[in-house]
Design goal:
This protein is mostly beta strands. It is built from 5 helices and 25 strands. The radius of gyration is 27 Å and the shape is elongated.
Length: 443
């Protein structure tokens, strides 16, 4: 299946991008003169390790102004025209931080570091990385304009979930449908999988199966994700193509950290049932460069192999016997032995440019491939093709001359999902102009 989607027409999008770039250039040339007079403060909130803190509430003392940091910890807030302004930063799980900003300090972006220390005599209980990931999710949920549930990358990485569907099973109100023991589709608030929209970085993803609208989330590994956001009540900026809910998969950004960052993971597991092994590895590298760190680039990749040897018994039920003396019984029994190998390869990358505060341009791309190599050995007994002997009851029956069928099948299914989005955002006073051009494809 192939889909091409634009928020505006392609020509209009390109014209708007050019206009945004020109306005950004003009803004940059007058930045020094305007910064003092425009009565706004721009900055970023980090923890001690240089990780951005999304969902932090930034407010102005003795004023009603407040805002929330985005996924990269950045914020822009209007302040009174005065020589000094006091900002208060609230973040669940960390002590409240205050920062006094002078008029001259407003000419440059403000960097605020929130410590995780305590006063002498205090008793502090922390949970390490798991505690931090929970705090990140709760802060974003607290500051959201609608009903959302958030899973951060730190939380996802703490669990052995191989794909997006299994990561989402930990979200309240979300269930999953499994295939060979692995999650494939999700059900939000009890609705069918077709009732939920799936996006990657805001780009709508179509199903790889032409027979259903539900997206195969077992195609996308969880290692390349920065954030999972489940929306249970839509806002005007989202497409109205979802009944149960919408899931947005946010990939990583170079602006998630203050500078260069590199991470990696590798692991192996042993399955006693079937005597098989699983392998998994992922990595990401990002950096910010330029005189003010205004450019950012990131590459992330993931590879995993899952081997399984499941077996199951399936029964078909129906009414058996002569009219007037019918019982509910088994009409067919299937014994199935499987040997499956599932391989996932995924990559994501992004180039970003943030020339001045409140303005950014980006290109993001994601590729995921899922290969399911399956052997099935099946023995079938078709009871209804035989003769039912008298004396059958609700719990037992005897057949003669039933049909036995043997079937051996080898099937390879490969799913691919591509998505790319280019766009920009301009902060214009209290409003924001956002332009996106996107392309997605599922095979």
């Amino acid at each position: 299946m192939l889909t091409f989607r634009t928020r505006a027409s392609l020509g209009a999008s390109l014209l708007m991008l050019v206009a945004m770039a020109l306005s950004t250039q003009a803004h940059a040339e007058n930045r020094a003169d305007e910064a003092v007079s425009r009565a706004s403060i721009n900055g970023t909130v980090y923890d001690e390790s240089g990780n951005a803190l999304p969902g932090a509430r930034v407010s102005v003392a003795n004023a009603a102004n407040e805002t929330t940091t985005d996924l990269q910890g950045m914020f822009s807030i209007f302040v009174p025209e005065s020589d000094k302004v006091e900002l208060t930063i609230d973040y669940l799980g960390r002590p409240q931080t205050t920062r006094v900003i002078s008029r001259t300090d407003r000419t440059q972006p403000i960097r605020i570091t929130m410590a995780n220390d305590a006063s002498e005599g205090d008793i502090v209980v922390t949970g390490g990385a798991l505690f931090d990931s929970t705090a990140r999710a709760l802060n974003q949920q607290r500051q959201a304009d609608n009903t959302v549930t958030v899973l951060s990358a730190d939380a996802i990485g703490r669990f052995p979930d191989p794909n997006i569907a299994e990561a989402l099973q930990r979200v309240p109100g979300v269930g999953i449908e499994r295939d060979q023991g692995e999650g494939r589709y999700i059900n939000v608030r009890g609705g069918p999988a077709e009732f939920s929209a799936i996006t990657i970085d805001g780009v709508s993803i179509v199903s790889v199966d032409p027979a259903t609208r539900a997206v195969n989330l077992d195609t996308i590994p969880s290692d390349i994700v920065a954030n999972l956001e489940v929306t249970k009540s839509l806002v005007p900026s989202q497409d109205a193509d979802s009944i149960s809910g919408a899931v947005n998969i946010s990939t990583r950004s170079a602006f998630d950290r203050a500078g260069f960052a590199m991470s990696g993971m590798a692991g192996m597991s042993y399955n006693q049932y079937g005597n098989t092994n699983d392998y998994r590895a992922s990595g990401a590298v990002s950096n910010r460069f330029g005189s003010d760190g205004q450019f950012g680039a990131i590459m992330a990749g993931s590879f995993s192999v899952t081997n399984r040897r499941p077996e199951n018994v399936e029964n078909t039920w129906g009414l058996i016997g002569t009219p007037g003396n019918q019982r509910f019984g088994v009409t067919e029994t299937l014994f199935k032995d499987y040997e499956t190998k599932r391989e996932r390869i995924a990559a994501s990358g992004a180039l970003e440019w943030r020339p001045v505060d409140g303005h950014r341009f980006f290109v993001r791309g994601t590729y995921a491939r899922f290969t399911d190599d399956e052997y099935r050995d099946q023995l079938g007994i078709t009871w209804s093709d035989g003769t039912l002997r008298p004396g059958y009851t609700d719990t037992s029956a005897t057949y003669t001359n039933t049909r036995l069928q043997k079937q051996i099948r080898h099937r390879i299914q490969q799913n691919e999902i591509w998505s790319v989005v280019a766009g920009g955002e301009n902060q214009l006073g209290v409003g924001k102009v956002r332009c996106l051009t996107s392309y997605s494809r599922s095979d």
